[in-house]
Amino acid sequence: MSTGALAAAQAALAAEHAAVYGYGVVGGRVGAARRREAADAHAGHRARRDALARTVRDLGGRPAASAAAYALPFPVPDAAAAVRLAAGLEDRIADVYSDLVRAAEGPLRREAAGALREAAVRAVRWRGSSGVAFPGLAERA
Hints:
Layout: H1 3-29, H2 35-58, H3 79-103, H4 106-127
Helix pairs in contact: 1-2, 1-3, 3-4
């Protein structure tokens, strides 16, 4: 594997750390009707985070540690803001996994593509509207 794959895996790991933190906020503010969705996303991101830590080690790196806290992009005082935060977290995850898809090969590339797809689907569900044609790429154009 290239150093590009290691750097992209580290970036994805850092984004997963932030997503796990962010979903802690989302889960505390989102309405009861969407709390299960937030809990499922939180669990999914924890699992991806743990898998990425192993991947980084397998690539010869030292997994980036989680920060004690993360700055949120905006205040999250209510359920509507929590839903916006969740969609934004998934957009960020799609961005970093698109980088990993470009940098990786073989099974790691397939895994990154799957994570990108999951993030795009979650973002659409949170927004309640259609997503972008090529998540992780279109918004960079």
